[in-house]
Amino acid sequence: MTTVLVVDDQFLIRAGLVGLLRAAPGIEVVGEASDGAEAVALAAETAPEVILMDIRMPGMNGIDATERILAQAADPTPRILVLTTFDLDEYVYGALRAGASGFLLKDSGPERLLAAVAAVDGGDALFAPSVTRRLVEAYARQTAGEQPTDLDVLTSRELEVLKLIARGLSNLEIADRLYISEATVKTHLNRTMTKLDLDSRAQAVVVAYESGLVTPGG
Fold it and tell me: Which parts of the sequence carry 4-aspartylphosphate (predicted)?
């Protein structure tokens, strides 16, 4: 049973998400919040495994709420899936850097939403397929000239895995590409995230672009 907290300031959208999740097998909605402050309080109280987080809310926004929830949460920390109306919203960048596990457009269908919850609960990053490359490339252009993360601490294999993750490949696809096991891919990713002090796969994607390991359109 995957426990989920739903955060959205619009009642009808929040109610729709809650209704959809409650009707799905294997999911338990443990709370719903209408703003960031309420989300922080409920996350501490209910310790959900997955949080659907709106970005634009009155008072504390989704980025600040994401940062506070992850900073205060005990292990295992919740997986935060950002819900946004806009496919290129500058706030999404901030959410990924804050530690969110990915984002999904609000106009995604029910099946995609449920698949997204399952994906982030399983440890994967989840990006809206229609905008993944555009979003990360736009972010990379925005941050051009900033001091990149030093990747010298990574082994050649860890660099290979990071590059393929940034290209959007799943762990299984990376395993097939490199002729290694899926467990080995996870090991390389975990070591990479530890060395670079990253909290999520999504942050690893951003670092790959920021550092120049992967280039927009390359």
Answer: 54
| Paired tokens of 208 | 């790959």
Amino acid found at 77: T
Instruction: Decide: 139 and 206 in contact? Cβ < 8 Å.
Output: yes
C-alpha span between 93 and 63 (Å, rounded): 9
Residues near 58 by beta carbon (within 8 Å), at least 6 away in sequence: 9, 35
The amino acid at residue 186 is K
pLDDT in tens, 140-195: 565 555 556 779 999 999 999 999 888 777 788 889 999 999 899 989 999 999 99
Q: Which domains does the chain have, with CATH numbers?
A: 2-138 (3.40.50.2300), 147-211 (1.10.10.10)
Distant-in-sequence, close-in-space partners of 156: CB < 8 Å, separation ≥ 6? none
Do residues 133 and 168 touch, judged by C-beta distance below 8 A?
yes
The answer to whether the beta carbons of residues 27 and 118 sit under 8 Å apart is no
